């Protein structure tokens, strides 16, 4: 086996990668759509079956199943290299039908085309190359998860377990629009708060009412005031609802909070401040509860992760990605979980794309082959 065999084969698979990507982009797979997420998983499993790669499903009753595939020498007990990615998207049922996979010029479009179905496709083909030709100095494990877009409530323990068992983690979230990869990320916590007030006729019996919406407004102002852009701390109440009718004081209201932070030490301080705001009644007679719905931890670059990045960067230069650098992202990802358990981790290795989570999401088709080749060479030299 030579490096050239691997990189040449990956170059020959450009259209096959695009074809598989088309198939999975055209299947709706919102995080809460277990049937759709598992249908995408079944399409990936078909690829593994066709190429003789052993795989298994780790079932989950609520969210999509986790898929594990292994390329290893028989009897090997070495720690594997973990190639990680998620197949869920932020888009609801019917989105793939409304705007299916399309190619315009050098870009592909469609729900999840960059974030991150292309990265999963790339991981699968890199693993397939090693299964076909051999040559990897270590076993390779492919992990395809199902609920990253909502904080990985079912996948986090799976990711942490597999991360602890791995020697290195390559998470193939989309490459940045700059062409760079990601060496640091913010942590994030997604929360829901519910407020209880008291209904009353807003004309005939106004004084008897207690407005949960009034309380919601106070809490939003206080929560947003915790934002500290200099420290990379942001608070956003992105969803609100409440009330019964326009002529009734609102008996209930609710909101959802997105917290992002850089320094792990800031987490406890900001959470304590949020909990205090939720516990305080700005409108007398209201009460409120707070629930954490999902959480990501930051990716903080360790010395080992820096060395892993430098090895990847050298491999990328060999396939023509000479200007590739590491950059920080305000977005969260599953890579934080593996970094936090102490395994060297780098992220954003997937094909280059942008405008994720929007109808304009795109993928740079010419980035598919070189990014796959860079990952393969990084594994070969690991």
Automatic annotation (TrEMBL):
Residues 183-285 form the Peptidase M20 dimerisation domain. Its EC number is 3.4.17.11. Keywords: Carboxypeptidase, Hydrolase, Metal-binding, Protease, Zinc. Its cofactor is Zn(2+). Gene3D superfamilies: 3.30.70.360, Zn peptidases. InterPro entries: ArgE/DapE_CS, Bact_exopeptidase_dim_dom, Pept_M20_glutamate_carboxypep, Peptidase_M20, Peptidase_M20_dimer, Peptidase_M20A. Transmembrane segments: none annotated. This is Glutamate carboxypeptidase. It is an enzyme of class 3 (hydrolase). PROSITE patterns: ARGE_DAPE_CPG2_1. It comes from Bradyrhizobium japonicum. One of its GO terms (molecular function) is carboxypeptidase activity.
């Amino acid at each position: 086996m030579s490096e050239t065999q691997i990189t040449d084969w990956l170059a020959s698979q450009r259209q096959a990668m695009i074809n598989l990507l088309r198939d999975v982009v055209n299947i709706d797979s919102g995080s809460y759509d277990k049937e759709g997420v598992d249908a995408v998983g079944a399409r990936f499993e078909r690829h593994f079956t066709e190429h003789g790669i052993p795989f298994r499903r780790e079932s989950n009753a609520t969210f999509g199943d986790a898929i594990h595939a292994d390329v290893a020498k028989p009897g090997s007990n070495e720690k594997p290299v973990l190639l990680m990615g998620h197949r869920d998207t932020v888009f609801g049922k019917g989105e793939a039908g409304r705007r299916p996979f399309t190619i315009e010029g050098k870009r592909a479009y469609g729900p999840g085309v960059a974030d991150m179905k292309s990265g999963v496709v790339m991981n699968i083909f890199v693993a397939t190359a090693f299964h076909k030709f051999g040559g990897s100095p270590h076993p390779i494990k492919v992990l395809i998860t199902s609920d990253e877009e909502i904080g990985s409530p079912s996948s986090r323990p799976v990711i942490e377990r597999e991360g602890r068992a791995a020697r290195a983690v390559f998470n193939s979230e989309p490459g940045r629009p700059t062409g760079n990869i990601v060496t640091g990320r913010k942590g994030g916590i997604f929360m829901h708060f519910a407020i209880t007030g008291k209904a009353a006729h807003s004309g005939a019996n106004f004084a008897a009412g207690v407005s949960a919406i009034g309380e919601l407004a106070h809490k939003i102002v206080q929560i947003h005031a915790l934002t500290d852009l200099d420290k990379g701390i942001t608070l956003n109440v992105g969803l609100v609802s409440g009330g019964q009718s326009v002529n009734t004081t609102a008996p209930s209201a609710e909101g959802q909070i997105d917290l992002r932070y850089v320094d792990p030490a800031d987490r406890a301080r900001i959470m304590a401040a949020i909990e205090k705001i939720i516990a305080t009644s700005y409108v007398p007679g209201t009460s409120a509860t707070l629930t954490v719905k999902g959480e990501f931890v930051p990716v903080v670059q360790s010395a080992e992760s820096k060395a892993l990045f430098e090895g990847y960067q050298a491999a990328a230069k060999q396939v023509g990605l000479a200007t590739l650098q590491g950059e920080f992202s305000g977005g969260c990802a599953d890579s934080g979980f593996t970094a936090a358990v102490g395994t060297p981790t780098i992220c954003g290795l997937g094909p280059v794309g942008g405008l994720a989570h929007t109808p304009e999401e795109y993928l740079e088709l010419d980035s598919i082959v070189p990014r796959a080749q860079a990952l393969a060479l990084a594994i070969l030299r690991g």
